[in-house]
Design brief:
The protein is mainly alpha-helical. It contains 14 helices and nine strands.
Length: about 325
């Protein structure tokens, strides 16, 4: 384990106006935490919203310089470390997009080009062992963020927790004002990652308040291999409103989500399902119209009920 400790505590880091870039150690800490909490279970580091969220949580907590967070940069550049403990797996027939810096700078470009990263056998073995993982985490903190201990970052409030509170409790106008101001001066890459993170937290919050069941059908199935069969749906699209608050959300299975987004169904002011008169169910027993006029499943707390204003906007948009 000595060699992997040496490799991760002597990372090649770009020299910026604020000092050495913190991106690589932050990503490695995020990967360690993801293993710790069961979000990563094997030697296949996927590019997903959960890992991005961990990256931003740790960045906001540990980085006190003016560096700009960017998840994609370290995910790609860790593959250039001399220890070869991080290997990226490029999609078949794809190649790394050519840029002046020979890099991938955006989350969308990374996800459309790279399948995952794999760790060296030594690093993977260390991460999967509880005691060794704690040693690796503390070594990274000592080397790059000496003011923090493993205990201090475990107990600290995370950025994602703050966002979840905003989603659950902010009035829509306050939330929209806040997010608009925040992303105004950001780079294209940072803006993309911030919105992906917030979309991830919106989904988590909506599924939680609806108890992970479809608000129309009541479908609720325990996820297998983290595959969820229920979506978090914006009542009025985020692209039109920048509104990620809980009252602009509703949980729907994919079929009802598509039906709602396309105006085939709507919800009235009494939270009953409306079905478009031109919709034909060829198999009524398994169709949509069987739920017409039924009251949808609502969150336990009225505070989280769908916004009557947003539901009215949705009905108006589709001519109900």
């Amino acid at each position: 384990m000595h060699s992997i400790l040496k490799q991760i505590t002597s990372l090649r880091r770009g020299n910026t106006v604020y000092g050495f870039a913190p991106h690589k150690p932050i990503l490695l800490l995020a990967v360690l935490e993801s293993f710790e909490y069961g979000e990563i279970k094997d030697n296949w580091i996927k590019i997903n919203e959960a890992l991005l969220t961990r990256f931003y949580d740790l960045w906001k907590l540990l980085v006190k310089t003016g560096n700009t967070p960017n998840f994609s940069l370290p995910f790609y550049h860790l593959s250039n470390e001399p220890g070869e403990f991080w290997k990226i797996i490029v999609m078949h027939g794809m190649s790394i997009p050519a840029t002046k810096s020979h890099s991938i700078k955006s989350f969308s470009s990374l996800k459309s080009t790279v399948l995952a990263a794999k760790l060296s056998a030594e690093f993977y073995y260390g991460i999967t062992d509880v005691l060794t993982r704690a040693t690796l985490k503390q070594a990274l903190l000592n080397a790059y963020f000496p003011d923090y201990s493993e205990k201090s970052i475990i107990t600290a409030t995370r950025y994602s927790q703050e966002i979840e509170k905003q989603i659950l409790y902010d009035p829509a106008e306050n939330y929209v004002r806040r997010i608009t101001k925040q992303i105004e001066g950001e780079t294209t890459e940072s803006r993309e990652e911030e919105l992906i993170l917030r979309s991830h937290m919106f989904r988590k919050a909506v599924l939680e308040v609806y108890d992970k069941q479809c608000a129309v059908s009541g479908l609720k199935i325990d996820p297998i291999k983290q595959t969820m069969l229920i979506d978090a749906c914006h009542i009025v699209p985020f692209s039109q409103t920048f509104d990620d608050t809980i009252r602009n959300g509703i949980s729907l299975s994919p079929t009802f989500h598509r039906a709602f987004d396309n105006g085939l169904i709507a919800i009235d002011a009494d939270f009953r399902l409306l079905v478009h008169p031109k919709l034909n169910d060829y198999n009524p027993a398994a169709g949509i119209r069987q739920y017409e006029h039924k009251t949808i499943f609502l969150p336990r707390e009225e505070l989280f009920y769908p916004s009557l204003q947003r539901l009215a906007e949705h009905r108006l948009r589709f001519g109900y």
